[in-house]
Design brief:
By secondary structure, this protein is of the alpha/beta class. It has a single domain, classed as Rossmann fold, CATH 3.40.50. The chain has 7 helices and 5 strands; from the N terminus they run βαααβαβαβαβα. Strands 3-2-1-4-5 form a 5-stranded parallel beta sheet, sandwiched between helices. α6 links the parallel β4 and β5. The longest helix has 18 residues. The radius of gyration is 15 Å and the shape is globular. The chain starts with a strand and ends with a helix.
Length: about 140
């Protein structure tokens, strides 16, 4: 089974980067690079590594910018991959950066666990989708 994480607002504190919306409107990837992790990186890595040892796979499903051009969204994907490399100290099994609005349940093949701040994504996913506030509790419970 794969445990998937959204990025913006779930594991990356994207919305608290000063000027994030203006940056996006000006085709700047700055907020994607500057967002702080919404978790203790070492505790999170420990949990994910323990889950991997139990047979879980770890994946990311995140959207590109809502109104971004193809060129800008290519930069967004690179910035998100860089952020993951710097802040998630675990080898990820899957990284899927997909166009804004893409169905995450379809990308995941209809199964697994999802942590996502977007209620619409959790509702579409159904059972196994959780708010980020429950992330550590649920991950710990899987051990």
């Amino acid at each position: 089974m794969t445990i998937y994480f959204d990025m913006d607002g779930t594991i990356a504190d994207f919305y608290n980067v000063r000027g994030w919306l203006e940056d996006l409107e000006n085709n700047s990837v700055h907020p994607y690079l500057m967002a702080k992790p919404l978790f203790d990186v070492y505790r999170f890595a420990g949990l994910l590594n323990a889950l991997k040892r139990k047979g879980y796979k770890i994946g990311i499903i995140s959207w590109t910018s809502k109104n971004g051009s193809k060129e800008f969204n290519s930069k967004v994907e690179k910035a998100k991959r860089h952020w993951l490399k710097e802040n998630v100290l675990v080898s990820l099994d899957e990284i899927k950066i997909v166009p804004y609005g893409t169905s995450k349940i379809k990308i995941a093949g209809g199964n697994g666990i999802l942590f996502d701040d977007e209620e619409r994504n959790r509702n579409e996913w159904g059972a196994g989708a959780y708010e980020p506030a429950k992330m550590i509790e649920i991950l710990t419970g899987l051990l």
